[in-house]
Amino acid sequence: MISNLRQWAIIGFAFFCLLVGLATIWLPIPTGVPLLALGAFLLIANSRVGRNAVRRLRKHVDWLDHALVWLEERAGRPFDRVLKTTRPLMTRHRRKREVEAGLSRSTAGTDPALTSTTSPSTPAGEEKRTQESTAKQPCG
């Protein structure tokens, strides 16, 4: 019961930090950003719903994901561990790279039976014979 009460108190303090940080972000005194960071860190560390919300945001907002990856690399060990729990299963920029790599692999034509083997100097008749010979070779 006490640990549950403690967790609720921490989550309440995290929301308080987020609200005060949003209210003071436009002031000339730099209190808004540190309060937002503290509130987000406490919410991620102590709430499954908070972790999932940040994970969803990272999945759909590419610049936020890049910024948090940059922060993960430079943060200390406890902060790094907490931020890594919010990584999406496959981040958007990795997915884009894999899609681009997959498209370049599929257009490269790695399967000789499916691609034509003609070069500018190969006559059309030799292309057919090459495809037929690769199709007749036993698998082994």
TrEMBL record:
Sequence segments annotated as region (Disordered): 86-140
Keyword terms of this UniProt record: Membrane, Transmembrane, Transmembrane helix
Domain of life: Bacteria
Residues passing through the membrane, by range: 7-27, 33-50
UniProt-recorded name of the protein: Transmembrane protein (PGPGW)
Provenance organism: Cohaesibacter marisflavi
